[in-house]
Structure formats: C-alpha cells, structure tokens
Amino acid sequence: TFVVTDNCIKCKYTDCVEVCPVDAFHEGPNFLVIDPDECIDCTLCEPECPANAIYPDGDVPAGQEAFVELNVELAKAWPVITVRKDSLPDAKDWDGKPGKLAMLER
Ligand code: SF4
Ligand code: F3S
Questions:
Q1: Which atom of ligand 1 is the closest one to the Cα of 19?
Q2: Ligand 1: which of 19, 25, 42 to mutate, judged by most atoms within 8 Å of the beta carbon?
Q3: Ligand 1 center to residue 106 CA distance, Å?
Q4: pLDDT value at position 39?
Q5: Any idea where the 4Fe-4S ferredoxin-type domain is (predicted)?
Q6: Is the separation of the CB atoms in 3 and 67 below 8 Å?
Q7: Is 13 within a domain?
Q8: Predicted pLDDT at 100
C-alpha cells in the first residue's frame, strides 16, 4: 500500500485524490491518509503530490515509519475525499518543514 507522510501536514494540496481509482484517500483537518484496505498500489498518486509526501509503505523516509500505522488508524476515523480542493492557506510556507507530526490535528 501507499502511505501519506509528514510533509502533507499543514499543506494538504489534495492533488492526490483526483487520480486515485479506488477512492482510498481520507481527509482530516490538516492531513490526508490512504486506506490500506482500498489502495491497489497503482502508483498514480505518488507523482501528483507537490509536497512529495506519498511513499510505498516499505519505502517511507527514515524516521517516518509511524506514518504507516497512522494511515491505517486515521483512515478508519476520517471521511473519504475524492475531489480536489484548495490547499491550506500557508501550504507554501510549511512545505518542506521537518517534524510536522507534532502539529497533526485529529
Ligand atoms: Fe490510490 Fe493508487 Fe495511490 Fe493507492 S497508489 S492511494 S490506489 S492512487
Ligand atoms: Fe497531502 Fe500531497 Fe495529497 S500534500 S493532500 S498527499 S497532494
């Protein structure tokens, strides 16, 4: 499965949701996750993310392993999103900032 990682937080560009053939993305206040029970590993979303936040679960950046379980957990709690919307207002400022997990809103 593919997973959404740290750099999506406080950016949430949502370009990823438009290309997913199985509607696997779920939306929270400042982050999206992928439901591993839906993802078919088509790879289409990975290059769509302007923040390069999407990775295969076996290849997440070092130190971000917790995001694999976080996608599982939050996909159960958050609603599906299938239509692109505006990014969060300060997305450009937050893009690339490390350690955004501390700012995750649930
Ligand atoms: Fe959807 Fe494909 Fe991305 Fe999985 S890899 S979340 S199926 S677009
Ligand atoms: Fe997040 Fe990238 Fe999608 S920033 S909302 S994973 S396009």
A1: 8
A2: 42
A3: 22
A4: 98
A5: 1-29, 30-59
A6: yes
A7: yes
A8: 98
Q: Ligand 2 centroid to 75 CA: how many Å?
A: 14
Domain of 42, in residue numbers: 2-83
Q: In this structure, which ligand is nearest to the CA of 48? A: 2
- Give residue-wise pLDDT tens across range 31-81: 999 999 999 999 999 999 999 999 999 999 999 999 999 999 999 999 999
Cα gap 60→15, rounded to integer Å: 20
Both tokens assigned to 83: 């239509």
The residues with which 80 forms a beta bridge, in sequence order, are: 26
Q: What is the CATH number of the domain that holds 7?
A: 3.30.70.20
Contacts of residue 103, defined as CB under 8 A and 6 or more positions apart, other chains included, come to 9, 10, 30
CA separation, residue 29 to residues 9, 99, 106 (Å): 9, 17, 7
Q: 38 alpha carbon to ligand 1 midpoint, in Å?
A: 8
